[in-house]
Amino acid sequence: MNTSLRGFGRFVAMPITIVAMTITLMAALTGCGSGSNAGAGSPSSTHSASSAPSASTPSPSATKPSATPTPSPSASDTKGGDSNGTGSCSTSQLAASLGQSQGAAGSTYVPIVLTNNGGTCTTQGFPGVSFTAQGRQIGAPAERDGSSPASPITLNHGQSAHATLRIVQAGNFDASTCRPTPTDHLLVYPPDQKDSLTIEVSQYTGCANGELPILTISPLQAGGAA
After folding, report:
1. For 127, phi and psi rounded to 5 degrees?
2. Tens digit of pLDDT for each residue in 156-167?
3. Most exposed of 65, 90, 185, 201 (fewest Cβ within 10 Å)?
4. How many C-beta neighbours within 10 Å does residue 221 have?
């Protein structure tokens, strides 16, 4: 009986020893696995994520200022006049007057004189002329007489040019056709100007019929009236 119990004790002790050794070996293996995982590369994945460029960073070309265009010269930068740079005579620098009139064959010939009261300027061509009464034009404006040339005229301060106005007497026409009307002014536009000058007159009678021109004007000539 005692011999059997001792043998049974040895038989029970051997498996317990084997189990203990197995548990110890597994613990050792587990420790080694944990150590190698702790040294592995989660830090490397963090580094590569932080080195990637941000998508919101603006491109340098987007903030580059555009070049400012240079304005081209406008047409108002140029001045009219002759080849020597003399400007055209403006209405504001001219004065208008009448020279000595002459009569012949039912017409009156009277010089219209333009005098330069400003700086040196150039004029050329035909003035525009018409009769007025109480601020209204009477009849047709003067027709142009192209029998003499229209040459450029340079006027220094105080110098004059003149054009000859022919006035056909209103009495030469049937009154019902002419419709004679007393005048009070001549309206004069210097060549190439939009503003006018006035000359007071009361000795002339115009025709209110605009289809019956009684005025004819020559081109400007240098000098005042003779």
Report:
1. -75, 155
2. 999 999 999 999
3. 65
4. 17
Phi and psi at 174, nearest 5°, equal -60, 135
Reading the block at residue 159, the tokens are: 């110098």
Buried b (16+ CB within 10 A) or exposed e, 173-184: beeeebbbbebe
Tokens representing 109 are 């010939």
- 136 bridge partner residues: 133
Q: Which residues pair with 181 in a beta bridge?
A: 206
List, as one string, the DSSP characters of the chain.
-HHHHHHHHHHHHHHHHHHHHHHHHHHHHHHHHHHHHHTSSHHHHHHHHHTSPPTTPPPGGGGPPPPPPPPPPPGGGS--S-TT-PPBPPGGGEEEEE---EEETTEEEEEEEEEE-SS-EEE-SPPEEEEEETTEEESPPPEE-TTS----EEE-TT-EEEEEEEEE-GGGS-HHHH-EEE--EEEEE-TT-SS-EEEE--S-EEES-TTS--EEEPPPEES---
- pTM of this prediction? 0.63
Q: How far is residue 153 CA from its own chain's centroid?
A: 33
